[in-house]
Write a structure and sequence with these properties.
By secondary structure, the chain is an alpha/beta fold. It has helices at residues 13-28, 89-94, 97-100, 119-130, 132-138, 178-190, 242-262, 283-294, 321-328, 331-334, 352-358, 372-375, 388-408; strands at 33-45, 49-54, 60-63, 65-67, 79-86, 104-107, 143-147, 173-176, 195-200, 203-217, 222-232, 268-275, 298-304, 312-318, 362-367. The strands form two sheets. An eight-stranded mixed β-sheet has the order 3-2-9-5-6-7-8-4. Strands 1-10-12-11-13-15-14 form a seven-stranded mixed β-sheet, sandwiched between helices. Helix 7 (242-262) packs across helix 13 and helix 8 (283-294) packs parallel to helix 11.
């Protein structure tokens, strides 16, 4: 998937090939049933992109950039304007619109390196990628630049999705690497009259027909109770989508393959779902939940793997305290595999519609997160960055959890 197909943004030819690969791989794993769920997905294309700093003397300093996913483009001529430095949203809200109008806003918001769990740093930072472009546009900005949502000290920008507020103009939005953002910050702090030139030709094309890929092992005693596991096939259009979310896809397939290989017939039906379009639309997860409601399915629990292929240390959960305590009663069976943390909350983006629509208890595999945001949504997310033993440990943890849930219920 990573090396022969590569990155797989929804709507692309690579995403279509990934669907074929997923179906073939689930069939080879020995599933009792493999099928596709049709879903219409957005098709955003990056196009060409470039930017540079312009100082008062006319000198140009090129920077590496990535347009933020779903961003509009500048057009072929690009835009050039003064840059306004904003460190946080409180500063923006105190600004006079006349100081923002016609300018490029640079959100210099840092990834908090002091949190042990790096996902605690991701949430506050990702707001500046997701929502800040519309906040700046409301005050008259013509483009937004953000510091990448990244823990890495390198020159690799990180992309990700944004959502435009329909009440504000849609303006181009790009991300700089941490080193690139440092360079821009230095210029703004030491010189006057600093401008930027940005050119990108990204655009949103018409929706494309795609699919979730589903494989099942039918339960031997309670087949109408379903345990869903899954990851997402799509990735951003850079790197290879290895940790995000090739790892979760192959771990989900491996659970079914392991049961078949060992000759274990689960009491309840185990269903692996390879979701499409988690990254910039969540259409696959939404469609899966809609079909589950329409088919009046009974989902016992759903487990997602979408936090990378590093060493697993636990599971996060969104469920009742009674259900959580039952899972925690199995902790002595999981600790030999290094699974000790069962206290976190959460369940993964693709499962959120299922939880919302049906109240299904949801879980997510929780790997060590120290390296994840060095690679996340960047050119660094490649197959070589996934460690085989760590990846297998994640599949083992999911298989053990699924076996316990299938055998003892929730």
């Amino acid at each position: 998937m990573c090396k022969q197909i590569g990155h797989r943004i929804s709507g692309s030819p690579q995403a279509a090939r990934a669907v074929e690969w997923g179906k073939e791989t689930l069939e080879k794993a020995g599933c009792d049933k493999v099928y596709l769920q049709e879903v219409m997905v957005p098709h955003w294309v990056r196009g060409e992109e470039q930017c540079h700093i312009l100082d008062a003397k006319g000198n140009r300093y090129p920077l590496k950039l990535l347009s933020i996913g779903n961003s509009v483009g500048t057009g072929h001529t690009g835009i050039e304007a003064p840059v306004v430095l904003i460190n946080n949203m409180d500063e923006l809200e105190r600004m006079n619109p006349s100081d923002i109008h016609g300018k490029i806003v640079f959100f210099n918001n840092y990834f908090d390196q002091t949190n042990i769990n790096t996902f605690e740093s991701y949430g506050p930072c990702v707001y500046y990628r997701w929502a800040a472009p519309s906040k700046a546009a409301k005050l008259g900005a013509i483009a937004v630049v953000i510091r990448s949502v990244s823990s890495a000290f390198d020159d690799a920008p990180h992309t990700g999705s944004l959502s435009y507020d329909k009440k504000s103009p849609a303006i181009p939005a790009i991300a700089l690497s941490n080193l690139g953002a440092d360079q821009l910050l230095h210029k703004l702090q030491t010189e006057k009259g600093v401008k930027m030139y940005i050119r990108n030709t990204c655009q949103m094309l018409p929706d494309v027909k795609s699919y979730n890929v589903v494989g099942e092992i039918t339960g031997s005693e309670i087949p109408n109770e379903i345990i869903t596991i899954g990851g997402h096939l799509d990735s951003w259009d850079i790197g290879e989508g290895a940790h995000d979310d090739g790892a979760g896809v192959v771990q989900s397939i491996e659970v079914l393959r392991t049961f078949k290989k060992l000759g274990i017939r689960p009491k309840r039906t185990i269903r692996a779902v390879l979701f499409m379009n988690e990254e910039n639309g969540l259409r696959g997860g939404t469609k899966y939940a809609e079909l589950a409601v329409a088919n009046k399915e009974n989902h016992l629990v759903a487990i997602e793997s979408d936090a990378g292929g590093a060493t697993p240390i636990g599971f996060s959960m969104t469920m009742s305290n009674t259900q959580r305590n039952k899972i925690k009663s199995w902790q002595h069976l999981l600790i030999p595999y290094g699974i000790y943390n069962l206290d976190g909350n959460g369940g993964g983006a693709d499962l959120s519609p299922l939880h919302k629509k049906m109240g299904t208890p949801v879980m997510e595999l929780y790997p060590d997160s120290q390296r994840y945001f060095d690679m996340h949504h960047s050119e660094n997310d490649v197959f070589e960055k996934v460690h085989r033993r760590e990846l297998c440990l994640g599949a083992i943890a999911m298989s053990a959890m699924v076996y316990l849930l299938s055998t003892y219920g929730l």
